[in-house]
Amino acid sequence: MHQSLCLDKLTVPGYSRVEVVETSSSTNAELATAVRSDPAAWPAPSALVAEHQTAGRGRAGRSWETPARAGLTVSVLLRPRVPAEALGWLPLLAGLAVVRAVSDGGVTAAVKWPNDVLLPAVDTIAGLGLYRKVAGILAEVVPGTPGQRTTAVVLGIGLNVSQSAEELPVPTATSLALAGYPRPDRTDVLVRLLGEVHAVVRRWEQAGGDAAAAGLLDEYAAVSATLGTRVRAELAGGAGVLEGEAVGLDGSGALVVRSESGEERAVTAGDVWHLR
């Protein structure tokens, strides 16, 4: 049986507010609306958590739903003191935070550029290789927040915790429970996750948004399932397809792909598939 969050344990150092609601259509959308309506009520960092999210939004407008109390659906409000061109690093840093949070339970996770977290699997599947998706991330700028000098960003994270195989939406997904995570406690995982998000974002801010100077680029690369592999990038807006080796990340967090001709191109958005 899926467990409710234990509110008595939800003390997260560094956060101004952590609000838990029973049901939300989309924590990202509801938090963004609340911040626009009353910015002072949501100082950064704050978090909105839903026990059950009924119409979550992923990248490219994709929607999803998880069974009540089976996963973690959380949106974090940030006001990063970094140059605007560095904001593309936020979903990558969130992925790194998820990897660290679940690794505390003995599960080895990896990040897939730009916004997925993966766990090892026993068989190969197209586009993911020997991995299954356990978490997805969506970062959105909140427009129209009066009286604020820094950009507000809502960082949404959906993490599969205790779902059975039958409860997962697609065969390419997995959960911590299915991966052998020892008795996953949603409250403990949430506290660790929020703590890791706060820690990596703080380091990034202290380096002025320079992930390399903060040491975060190397740490991200060390847990990346994308870098060093051949990829197929379906570029956003129907701009074409790019195939080659994922060789690095630039200062904005874009994926650098080297084609067979040796030309390197930065991919800022789009679907990226790992090729065998």
TrEMBL record:
PROSITE patterns: BPL_LPL_CATALYTIC (PS51733). Pfam families: BPL_C (PF02237), BPL_LplA_LipB (PF03099). This is biotin--[biotin carboxyl-carrier protein] ligase. It is an enzyme of class 6 (ligase). The keyword ATP-binding applies. The keyword Transferase does not apply. Keywords: ATP-binding, Biotin, Ligase, Nucleotide-binding. Residues 10-205 form the BPL/LPL catalytic domain. It comes from the Bacteria. CDD domains: BPL. One of its GO terms (molecular function) is biotin--[biotin carboxyl-carrier protein] ligase activity. Its EC number is 6.3.4.15.
